[in-house]
Specification:
The protein has 687 residues and is mainly β. It has no helices and 55 strands. The relative contact order is 0.08.
């Protein structure tokens, strides 16, 4: 016969001694009904001293043949054991009951044990039992209950163990009356043993310790993130005080340098051993000073897009060597193919604000003149025409540690900033990469909607719980995913001009509710008084460019026909003429993260004007250009990664011309090139 025991956990504070537990102070619901384990598995953290109180209930009645019996129960405390041993007592001793002094041990029940005979054939065979009397009463509704306090230490390694409790179930008489005799654990009834031994098994899981944070991954150079013609991105680097931060810095070296009358196209080598800060406002995340770890860069806090090389740097001493990360000049079109790279920093910022300077010592060297491919980087001490062809310099990169921004404040709607008749302002939203930004987006919702032959003037409710981005090019400034924080919008990164309301949205279920920001249609002159609002975004842009879409789920609803003022917004599930007077839709707002300039770069050549529309475009756009004289020209579209995805060449007379082009979704630079020069425009294509 098998029995289940339900155990309910209550985590307690650590005790110097393992005190007796008390069933009278058990929290509500501690004892399961009618019996069984609850939860099925006891889950504990690894490597901890822990005190756990386990409440349990035994079955009130059991079936034996055609009889229902109401037994007492006795736990053989001497036999408590674990299969593996993932728990010990807090003093490090093996897990076991201390019958000499339970308080000094690590296992204590709600009552003291008894030393009882358990073998009817031998009066000397005795053991320690904690005995639970069946209280009697209403059959099936008065189970024996108890508790056990464990003061244990969990293993430093995770795993699953089983606690085995040997239990004797016994009866002294039939029926379910109170005051059942527990004097003997070896009762007889009708000349037969009226007891049975069984074992209860309880699963204990010790959770494995969390893995250490992964080392910073190697960054990947990105031409779209690399500043032109040279420099760092971002520049300066702006960080907030007292935070662990991981970020990527992209950099570009000069493609060419002038040396007298000669133009050189050098390679570059960063002396990573010499990386240093002037003031030390950032450290590694483990608290160690900011430095490069040449033994294992992956375990340090500074990592480049390639491994360092251990190279000789003094031509007069072959033993003078250091670690360098080397960037080969790729060659190609002079002035248009700079060496690019990146470094990933996993750092902790100081609690003090200030400005620091990261100094990167760099060796500039050439192995030959010209701008050919595959420039040799074997030696950092090359010579040409009997002279050294290398030069050491220091690049300085500014780091600003500043106080974090204040909580994201609510915005204030403004009719002067609101687009008419409806839409967003700005549209699209264009942001630079790798920036913490706070901005306000103003919007107007349609004043009127046409449903069949009826014009209605609805209210609107934005489902703020459902705000989401398709790609995720924005996060909150604390690095958390972009989402509305309904518990306290001021501490989140998305604020509206009014507080949200917690409203029922399903007419069939009053428990289905969500958070909405509700905009009442103001009424007035039909078609000229749209509901307006704004949202303030305190966000961090991705380090990579792209086009994202913010989706706002919106419920449009009416409480009556007409365009009068004071439309009721109490219910989001109104009924009108026996039908639902609401509809759900989704508004889409384009967000672009890009480094491409939006200004027209004018030249003094044949092109007088150059524009592109619509912008953003949906697959197809029209380029419009005005020429002051006849000329041959090339129109090119270049993606953010430098790929040419469209080219058109032709000869045109003076005057205004248009040209249509179809492109997949993305961000492009349109280049209009003539023999006299070139102009460019940014184009965004969305689906």
């Amino acid at each position: 016969m098998r029995y289940l025991v339900f155990l309910s956990l209550v985590m307690g504070s650590l005790h110097a001694q393992c005190n007796m537990c008390d069933i009278n102070s058990a929290p509500a619901g501690a004892f399961p009904t009618p019996y069984g384990f609850n939860p099925a598995t006891l889950v504990l953290p690894s490597g901890k001293d822990t005190t756990v109180v386990i409440y349990f209930a035994f079955p009130d009645g059991i079936q034996s043949g055609g009889f229902t019996l109401y037994p007492n129960y006795a736990i053989w405390v001497d036999s408590l054991r674990l299969d593996i041993g993932l728990l010990t007592l807090q003093n490090g001793q093996p897990f076991a009951y201390n019958s000499s002094n339970p308080v000094a041990g690590g296992i204590h029940f709600d009552q003291m044990h008894r030393y009882k005979q358990y073998d009817p054939s031998d009066p000397n065979r005795k053991a320690n039992f904690v005995v639970y009397q069946n209280p009697g009463g209403t059959p099936g509704q008065s189970p024996p209950i108890g508790c056990m306090r464990l003061c244990v230490r969990t293993s430093s390694t995770g795993g699953v163990d089983t606690l085995r409790l040997k239990v004797r179930a016994f009866i002294s008489g039939l029926g379910d009356g109170p005051g059942k005799d527990t004097t003997s654990l070896i009762p007889m009834l009708f000349s037969s043993n009226a007891w049975l031994d069984t074992t209860f098994r309880y699963t204990i899981e010790v959770q494995s310790p969390p893995p250490p944070p992964p080392p910073p991954s190697v960054c990947v150079p990105n031409i779209s993130q690399s500043p032109m013609p040279y420099g760092f991105n971002p520049d300066p680097l702006i960080l907030y005080t007292g935070r662990n931060t991981t970020f990527t810095v992209y950099f570009t070296f000069s493609d060419s340098i002038r040396q007298g009358n000669i133009t050189l196209y050098p390679n570059y080598a960063i002396w990573v051993d010499s990386l240093r800060l002037d003031r030390g406002l950032i450290t590694l995340q483990n608290g160690l000073p900011f430095s490069y770890n040449p033994t294992n860069p992956a375990l340090g806090g500074v990592q480049f897009d390639q491994m360092h090389r251990y190279k000789q740097y003094d031509p007069n001493d072959p033993n003078r060597k250091a670690n360098f990360v080397v960037y080969q000049n790729p060659g190609g079109t002079p002035g248009q193919s700079p060496p690019i790279g990146c470094m990933q920093l996993s750092v902790r910022t100081s609690s003090m604000v200030g400005i620091d300077t990261l100094r990167l010592k760099v060796r500039i060297f050439i192995s030959a003149l010209g701008d050919g491919l595959n420039k040799d980087t074997t030696s950092l001490i090359p010579r040409l025409f009997g002279s050294n062809t290398w030069l050491d310099t220091t690049f300085r990169y500014t780091i600003v540690v500043m106080s974090p921004p204040p909580p994201c404040s609510a915005c204030m709607s403004s009719s002067g900033q609101t687009p008419v008749p409806y839409g967003f302002n700005p549209d699209p939203l264009i942001l630079p990469p790798s920036r913490d930004t706070s901005l306000t987006v103003h919007f107007a919702l349609p004043d009127a909607m046409v449903i069949g032959s009826i014009t209605i003037y609805p209210n609107y409710a934005i489902w703020v719980d459902d705000l989401r981005l398709d790609i995720g090019l924005l996060t909150l400034q604390n690095g958390q995913p972009f989402a509305y924080y309904s518990a306290d919008p001021a501490q989140g990164g998305i604020r509206f001009d009014q507080m949200h309301r917690y409203k029922q949205y399903d007419p069939n279920d009053p428990n289905r509710k969500a958070n909405f920001v509700v905009y009442q249609n103001p009424g007035g002159t039909p078609g000229q008084s749209p509901p307006i609002g704004c949202m303030r975004l305190c966000v961090r842009t991705s380090s990579t460019g792209g086009v994202d879409t913010l989706r706002l789920k919106v419920r449009a609803f009416i409480s009556g026909l007409g365009d009068g003022p004071n439309k009721d917004t109490t219910s989001l599930i109104p009924m009108f003429l026996g039908s639902n007077a609401w509809i759900d839709t989704t508004f889409r707002y384009t967000i672009i993260v890009t480094t491409v300039s939006t200004a027209l770069e004018k030249s003094s050549g044949a092109v007088q004007a150059f524009s592109v529309s619509p912008n953003p475009a949906i697959y197809e756009a029209v380029a419009r250009f005005s020429l002051v004289q006849p000329t041959a020209l090339v129109l090119r579209a270049v993606a953010v990664d430098g790929r040419e995805v469209y080219r058109h060449a032709g000869s045109y007379a003076a005057g205004v011309h248009t040209h249509s082009l179809s492109l997949p979704a993305g961000i492009y630079t349109l280049l209009l090139e003539t023999p006299a020069g070139s102009v460019r425009q940014k184009l965004v294509v969305v689906e």
